[in-house]
Amino acid sequence: MPSNHFSVIVCDLDGTLLTDTKELTQATIDTLIKAQKQGYTLVLATGRGNVIMDHFAKILRMDEYGGYVISFNGQRVLELKSGKVHQQALIQAKTIQAMYDFVNDHDIQLIVEAVDHYLIYTPKALRWLQYKVNVRKWLDRLLRKPLRLYPLFNQEVISQMAPIVHVQSVDELNVSAPKLGLSQTALVLRQHLPHAQETFKDELSIMEVAPTWIDVAPRSVSKHKGLAWVSKRLNVPLSEFIAFGDSENDIDMLQHVGTSYAMKNAMAAAKDVADYITSHTNNENGVSIELEKLLKV
Asked: What tens digit of pLDDT does each residue of 136-156 get?
């Protein structure tokens, strides 16, 4: 067990703090609020956008205690108490339009994650897959089965947080955005991931964050760089940060903090760079259990 020589707690969201049903458990909420009451600063660092992060920050009372939200994989950092925002580079329209051509060639869904809304392009060849996914979702709800990791954009979860616009042509993508998402079946994404990384290697960082989802961000953006800004604002070195994560977009963050944990359910690449692995998964209050041990030291 590590010592508790840390003053800043950094948590990824999906696969780390959130359960597979995209919820914060009461145990997780209680532990993180207790830590903030004891003087620890809480940072949420995620690939998700601003709107949904505001929702979770309020549940955790981070505005009250002075926390930070790093969204879009580090592109935007919000200091909750002051409202100050630090932003890095955007993905430019010409690059988004080039990605449109790529997904059309390989029948992959493209999600443009703007600051306050989503633009979704679904190639015609995916309409049958979309129909099958919708039927599976309906059956799961009918039979009250747990949420699965469905391919394609999970509109039921996101549409409650931010508006969605379905686009039909490249002309509707003349926008800049903090981040993109690519979604398809795990087999298709893994087949085309190396090609995408090679095609856009000079401009974009392209990482698998779930079997059916790939995050796309400007190459200059990372969670580590977002944390570096927080470190300067707090005048606290990264050596006094403890971080929890589970996927490829967490690796640079885990490598640069003083103490790092990969979740028990994490990708192998995240486990390889972390100092420790949690004893429990995201569905078993993994972060809460480790922090409770450390807060009692």
From this structure: 777 877 777 766 656 566 555
CA 261 and chain centroid, separation: 16
* Listed residues 218, 239, 256: the one ending a domain: 218
Closest to 182 measured CA to CA, from 96, 268, 248: 96
Q: Which two three-digit tokens encode residue 296?
A: 């009692």
| Phi/psi-derived region of residue 73, left when phi > 0, alpha when psi is between -120 and 50, beta in every other case | left
Average pLDDT over residues 251-268: 97
Domain span at 226? 8-88+221-295
111 — pLDDT class (breaks 50, 70, 90):
very high
pLDDT score at 141:
74
Q: Is residue 2 part of a domain?
A: no
Instruction: Please give the structure tokens belonging to residue 81.
Output: 């108490």
Residue 174 placed within a domain: yes
Backbone angles phi, psi at 218, to 5 degrees: -55, 145
**In a shared domain, residues 110 and 201:** yes
